Amino acid sequence: MAAYQVPRIAPRPTADPRDVILIANGDLRLSANQQCWPAQQEMERQLGQAVRDCGYRVVRAHAVKKNQGHGFIGSQKEGMQVFAGIDPRCRLMVAEAVWQYSHHVLHGLITHEGPIVTVANWSGTWPGLVGMLNLNGSLTKAGVPYSTLWSEDFADPSFQSQLRHWLDQGQLTHPTDHVTPLTGIRVPAAERRLGQTLAEQLQREKAILGVFDEGCMGMFNAILPDHLLHPTGVYKERLSQSALYYETTQVHDQEAQQVRQWLENKGLTFHTGPDPDQHLTDAQIRDQCKMYIAAVRIADDFGCDAIGIQYQQGLKDLLPASDLVEGMLNNSHRPPVRSRDGRRILFRGRPVTHFNEVDECAGLDGLMTDRIHRAMGQPVENTLHDLRWGDWDASGTVRDYVWVLLISGSAPPAHFVRGWKGASSERQPAMYFPKGGGTLKGVSKPGEIVWSRIFIEDHRLKMDLGRAAVVDLPEEETQRRWQATTPQWPIMHAVTYGVSRDQMMARHKANHIQVAYAHSAAEADKAMLAKASMAEALGMEVFLCGTRKTGRPWRPA
């Protein structure tokens, strides 16, 4: 009889029935994990008390790494080691006070057999709610059942009641009666026909998303599988950020200087200083201008209809931040870029639609938005933002709940008060951006917007759309919100029509939200319905969230 070296598999761990096993997922970047650790500790302290008040006990699944100065799971390998020691049937809580890389823990959550709850703080400074929405979207895409909770201090009666329900019952659902399937809504014939025709054109003629290094930001929810993407007529050109780096090094200093001069002539203000570790420097700006030229040329080389740069991993160790580049790309009125032989101006008079952090759901949405708005004579500039935080207006100017939509710099100046003249560029925070580089910062102008999100659920593409207003807040209130989040980044003050804070959190399946302006409320309604029809014709299941500006529901079919 043959003798084999049969591996010994350790017995499955078992947890006490009254224990709640807690994991804290984090960033790949040590500096971010170290700086954010105190906020996570405070959240876990408050959360532990809330669980004890319900008659249960929190048990951390992994120790604090004193030699590294934090207690986060910092890699996929580490996450696998942690889950090997977790009872697969236990109550499992993912507690997030920070941005997190979902792939660190997704493997363990996919195979977990017990109840899962994701829990986030409610803070602009410590973006746990952003990290949790990323994880929620990833779990939804993976088909993993989960519950979700959020709170400002984990002591309010509503949170306590919901937490107790999850602890006792193992599941929790939130009302989402603000969501209506498109099939139940009457779409005017003109908007339906436009959307269907643009969908047919896209499927016949096809389009390309230029993807610079897919997935390295840990956003499983942001990766569109080819078998779901291809029926829309859109295909990926998988590009390497090493190619972008090389092309950047081939751009002449004189070309970069021309881009900077164009920006300054249009009114963009650079806030520079002498120390590259702390300040935005002329050398950093020069390299960003070179990257901008390189990105446009590569997009032209491969015939890309939209591109996405995954700066935060890889390029962060080689070049200044890509965010100034991304904001320029997303604007129609931007520095001209000539082909290498100087004979052509590339993408003249139009954006090179960019999807931040290679969020391919945003890339497909951005491509669709560009085509719908161009056909309807609406502004084509669009961008994603982080659904970063929200709060009531402390100045009392606006009585509605006001969301802080914030992104690291890819918002186009066409969205800003005073356009380029209202834009500035400040050094990115060193915690995330060791090589510096400037943002494209501004305050979004008041107006009517369409917001949307493509996501994956039940093995198919789905799309949520809604209407909102960008509101004007006093300078003091804007500064309060900036200082509570990331003051170097562009900000949008948004009021969603017919969607409350908790309804948005209960439904939204991503850390990102796509936004585009229209000339008026009526035109924004039409643009939203046309895009919804296009999405439906491309095979997506489509939902409208909330109401019209007036508060009236959408007309039933």
As a percent range, the share of helical residues equals: 25-40%
Distance between the termini: 72 Å
Q: The CATH topology of the largest domain, please?
A: L-fucose Isomerase, Chain A, domain 3
- CATH fourth-tier homologous superfamily of the largest domain: L-fucose/L-arabinose isomerase, C-terminal
Given the structure, what is the number of helices? 15
Identify the overall geometry. globular
Per CATH, the architecture of the largest domain is: Alpha-Beta Barrel
Beta-strand portion reads 15-25%
CATH class identity of the largest domain: Alpha Beta
Number of strands: 18
> Averaged pLDDT, please?
96
- Largest beta sheet: what is the strand line-up? 11-12-16-15-14-17
> Based on helices, strands and strand pairing, what is the structural class?
alpha/beta
Largest sheet: 6 strands, antiparallel, barrel
Unreliable stretches (pLDDT < 50, length at least 5) are: none
Overall radius of gyration:
23 Å
How many domain regions? 2
What does this structure look like?
The chain is α/β, with parallel strands linked by helices. It has 2 domains: 19-169, Rossmann fold, CATH 3.40.50.10940; 184-545, L-fucose/L-arabinose isomerase, C-terminal (L-fucose Isomerase, Chain A, domain 3, Alpha-Beta Barrel). Helix content is 34%, strand content 19%. The protein has 15 helices and 18 strands. Strands 11-12-16-15-14-17 form a 6-stranded antiparallel barrel, surrounded by 4 helices. Helix 6 crosses helix 15 (521-537) and helix 12 packs across helix 15 (521-537). It starts with 18 loop residues before the first strand and ends in a 12-residue tail after the last strand. The mean pLDDT is 96.
